[in-house]
Amino acid sequence: MSSPLAAEVALPSQRGPRLSPGLAYALRQIATSLGTLAFVIVFNFFLFRVLPGDPIALYTRGRAIDAEQLRELRAQLYAPLWRQFLDYVVNPISGSGPSIRFQAPVWEVIAPRLPVTLLLVGTATILAAVIGVRLGIRAGWTRGSPFDKATTSTTLVLYSMPEFWFGMIVLIVFAVGVGPIPGLFPTGGIVTPGVDVSSPEGWLNVAWHLTLPVFTLTVVYLAQYTLIMRSSIIEERGQEYVHTARAKGLADRMVRNKHAVPNALLPTVTLVFLSLGFVVGGAITIEYVYSINGIGSLTVDALQGPDVPLLEALFLLFSTAVILANLIANLLYAYLDPRVRA
Amino acid sequence: MSLVSLRNVELAFDSSSGPLHILRGVTLDVQEGEVVGIAGESGCGKTTLASTILRLQPPTARLSGGVMVNGVDVNQMAWGDVRALRWAVGSVVFQGALHSLNPVQTIGQQIMEPMLIHGTQPSPSLARHTAQELLVEVGVPITRFGAYPHQLSGGQRQRVVIAMAMACRPQLVIADEPTTALDVMVQAQVLEVLLNLVRSHNMSMLFISHDLSVLAQVADRIAVMYAGRIIEEGTTSQVLEHPLHPYTRALVDAFPVIGDPRHRFAPASLSGEPPVPGRYGVGCAFAPRCPASEDQCTQAEPTLLGTMDHRVACFVTGGRE
Amino acid sequence: MTTLEFKAPSPAGGFRDGMRRLVRSRTALAGALVLVGFLVMALTAPLLFPESTLSVTRADGPPFSPPSLAYPLGTDEDGRSVLALVAWGARVSLLVGLGATAISMSLGTAIGIASGHYRGWIGAALDRVTDWFLVIPFLPLAIVLATVLGPSIWTITAVIGLTAWPGTARLVRAHTLSVSARPYLERSRALGARNAHQMIHHILPNVMPLVLANTTLAISIAILSETTLSFLGLGDPGSISWGSILDQGFQAGAISEGAWWYLGAPGICVVLVVLAFNLIGRSIEALLDPSTSDNP
Question: Checking DSSP bridges between strand B18-30 and strand B4-15, what pairing results, if any?
Fold first, then answer.
């Protein structure tokens, strides 16, 4: 029998100036994300310039511009490709030029609208995650039960629904009123004109306006998260350590909460972050339907024209956000799972 | 009174093509301080049998017969009493320690957990202290207390599982193939640890293995299972030195005696395939593969007959030396 | 050059048995019935509702009127029968859904097999490209592509096909990798079979069941995507699809008019068709991997 005072073996990281496995993993992930970002930037650049058609026409479709602007545009678009590319890469956000429609640098157009979108999407995502996880745990743990069957069927139907359509139906029923149901909510916008947003009364007003869109988005995201958590728990339920926990005499709820859930949350957390692409899509259409002045409806507006520089910038912004979310997902997983951690 | 008393235990599952009879009338006793070995191939029902002792059989299983622990029928107990029984009266050492341990909890936490649940240690700090002592007893360095299962070697993990099983000082340890997944050298060490602990604390052990050589080292008595029934049972020396049932004979013969010229040429393997678990026909389940089978063997199922020290269920060899 | 006879593993029991079990599944059956119904609707639309009934100038129904005997699904802002619109819409919605999926499935399967089969830089490069496209969020990418290509249903079909292939490619690649490790491929390689032969004759049949299950789910996503893109006005202004009806209704103020039939009908059609494909897809998945089935 070895003595309890056995000398501790020096861990690899203590042997000299070498990167700990955790740090190496993090750097690798960051490098991969930067690589993807680089691809997106290059892709974005070439998309509008290399495809068939007269680039001038693309930039000025449906708009009249004067000779001076035309000359500038020509100089910019007909410059040698490598020159354009360098200009763009150096400054991707503004590299595509000012917004045609708003006649202002794209960032000035985008920035003020960002907080609204973050408020809408952030609230919905958090609510959906919290509720979805709880529903998923209960449904998955009692797989086959009436609760599970009801949850799964409902989720399946929600999954089959275009989220903006659900939003419109919600609007008709709760904002306009159908039959005996009165319309209790505003039909759009984020605040009643004239109300001071910084006052508590203003906050309530904003909350009242946001209720229906947040409700719509939450329900739609909920379906996704419930399904993810449910399969995660079902997977863990069949594992041997769960059997061990039962053999130790733990009650069913404790087995679930103290053993299965911590393990099941790992892939769920990752998948929640990875579903940001889906979240973005929902934000765009719902803002449009509810006339909420965020970057989602801005994207739809930019389709008029089309306002190409603005579209390019928004595409870059959305892609960057999703790449960042993926990076966070990978790093978070490594941090939470002791098997991957240094 | 026996510590564990199984009386004519039958267990069946429902499947889409009819019931599967996994246990078909098993009667077995485990006394205090006794090590009983259960030998058999996979599918014979030995793990399922062991699971019934702590009422760990799947809820979809239909069980009949008596499963008595300290004289009380486990299946008649209130649910709370069953949970109190688990780990405090009887604990389990599982095969495959990596999967039997929670990957995201430290091994220290997992050893402490049953102590806190069952209240065998009044405070967390005392539980921690006891857990560390247990680690010492099984030969794992205390520095590994905060380690996660994947950070330990296979042998260390198995020792942790043993320490965990000892946490509430149970009367009975059910060891289900505890060393099967280990290298031979590590196997010997782990067996030694387990046996020492069991003996020094006068615990009983139910040791399940398909490996007779391992059972030869640890068990006081051996029961050989085949197709959901015990077909031979007795003291270790009786069963291994004078095997009566043709199946037991084949198992014992599979271990060549080095130097014995007979074993160099005799093919020791058993012909045929084990029957599909749960679907057994009329008559002795071993008859299709048995070199000594007669007509009567396919018509009725033999019962266990013999003395306390040695019983066998066989028409042909039963009751004879 | 013949390779040794080896049956690629198929779902337990083979194809015919699989079909038999599929038919027994009530949900799959219900899904199939719904789809047949909509297929009939799409095919008979020109007969039941001649193109003239779609003309805005010739429509004679009262605008924004709720469902009645004359107009079972009510009318739109111009007095056209919503039922006629929905029936015609089925044609484009289904066509685009199926067409786009055909593109994404072929592309995804081909790239997936190639990236899983070719070791070395080709496989790695394909895998990397798949990764990149997987990360880019769908709607912004689709919007940007559709803008460049101009509004038409072919644009939408191409856009959905070009954005949906990475999902399939990833799945197929993983399966190819596991299949490639199997001994019969080693055997055929040892006998000198060329890459193309291996990929087509060994890997493809093995991957097909997975691809088929994935196809029904891909179709449902494609139909949802088409609805969204048409709703945003990226489709052909002249053609009618369920998404474009929703766009039309939204622009015409159906919400403030409380015209629930106008927006409800096309939406419910989408939900029914997508749900049907989802149910069938899940049944096929359960067949291939019983552990995922929710039937005990």
Answer: antiparallel
